[in-house]
Every structure is written in C-alpha cells, then in structure tokens.
Request: fold
Amino acid sequence: MHFIPEELDNYVVAHSEDEPTLLQQLNRETYQKILQPRMLSGHYQGRVLSIISKMVNPKNILEIGTYTGYSALCLAEGMQSEGELHTIDINEELVDFQRKYFDKSGYGQQIHQHLGNAIDIIPNLNINFDLVFIDADKENYSNYFHVIIDKLNPGGIILSDNVLWSGKVLDTSFKKDDTSTPALIEYNKLLKADNRVETVVLPIRDGLTITRKL
Ligand SMILES: C[S@@+](CC[C@H](N)C(=O)[O-])C[C@H]1O[C@@H](n2cnc3c(N)ncnc32)[C@H](O)[C@@H]1O
Reply:
C-alpha cells in the first residue's frame, strides 16, 4: 500500500533506520513458512513502532495481534529495563515461532504470550498500560478501545494499525459481507469523538493512528 509515489516511499525508507538483523531473519522466515506474511508490520512500520516506543519509554505494553512477533519486538525496543510486554493472539500455531524469536532477542523474559480471544483475555489482565498496539480483527477495534481505556495510564498511547484499510474507509458502498470496513469507519469516528483522548491519524503504510489518553 503506497499513499505516496513509490519512488518517494523508497526514499523515505532509505533515509530511515535499517531493519535490525534479527528482524530481517524473522521477516524472511515468516515469508518462507507462515500463511499471510503480509500481515507482518515490516521494516519501515517496525522502525516507526520502535521509535514511538522509545519516545514513550513504557513500563507496560499491551499488543493485540502478535502474529509472528515482529511488532512485539519493535515495541520492546523502547520498553523500560524492568518493563513487560503482554501480547495476545488467537492462533496457537504461531506460539512456538514467536517464542523462538522472543528468546533470541534478549527480551524473552519480559514478553508474555497470551493465547486466545483478546476480548476475553484483556479484562483479566490486572495491569495498567503505557502503550497499546491494536493490530488484530478489525471488527473488534472499538470493543478493544472500550476494554482498554480504563487500563491505560494518563498520557498513555494507543497505536491502531490499518485504520485507512487500503483507502476503503472512504467507500460508502462496501460489500455486504465486508465487516471490516464499516467497523474501521466506526472506530475512526469513535476515536475522534471520545473526549478522554486526543487522536492523530498518520497516513503511514495502511494508516496508523496515535491516540493519547488525557
Ligand atoms: C495483522 S496480524 C498482526 C501482525 C503483527 N502485529 C505484526 O505487526 O507483525 C493480526 C493477528 O491477529 C490475530 N487475531 C485475529 N483475531 C484475534 C482475536 N480475536 N484475538 C486475538 N488475536 C486475534 C491473528 O491470529 C493474527 O495473527
């Protein structure tokens, strides 16, 4: 997905941080062995997540949608030395793959994997978070916001991925069986309207929203 001309996009990537070696390996192995590898955040968005996490310097991070662990490792780069990252995914086939890379990264002890439906798991996490990354089923983005907001510390940040959905959020004539597009349209409206937070949508990759709790 290119929101700017490809040549300029390449220039942006070339003048941003390089992809760390371990993440290059994770990226390659995901493309070789795992279904739907395009779900992985990838080099450029990964560096965006990393630098935001370093600016926030969170103690506790929550990620919804681990997939192969790429974005978790990017977010972990900014975590406090005693910090912890909780990451949730519903696909049990990914657990060993994730763990292999978490342990290789040096953050292995600080990263906790949760297997199951995020909407059931989050209410049972008795933790306040400084940084949350929402990157799972689009139909539940608004529900995730509602269960997270009271667990987010003041000044805490929610990052939401895919909020422009390849531009489909502009489309008012989406197909009947498309449940993701209307859910994202509602989610974007919800973040804009909720006076507990301030929100900026960034046209990065498939759209990344930064939401800060007041
Ligand atoms: C786009 S991928 C996450 C990509 C990852 N954050 C990254 O950037 O590398 C979405 C993931 O959400 C998971 N998922 C979908 N629905 C879920 C649910 N209800 N609860 C937990 N995980 C879910 C999928 O199994 C998939 O691995």
In short: Residues 39-41, 65, 67, 70-71, 88-91, 117-118, 135-137 surround S-adenosylmethionine (CB under 6 Å).
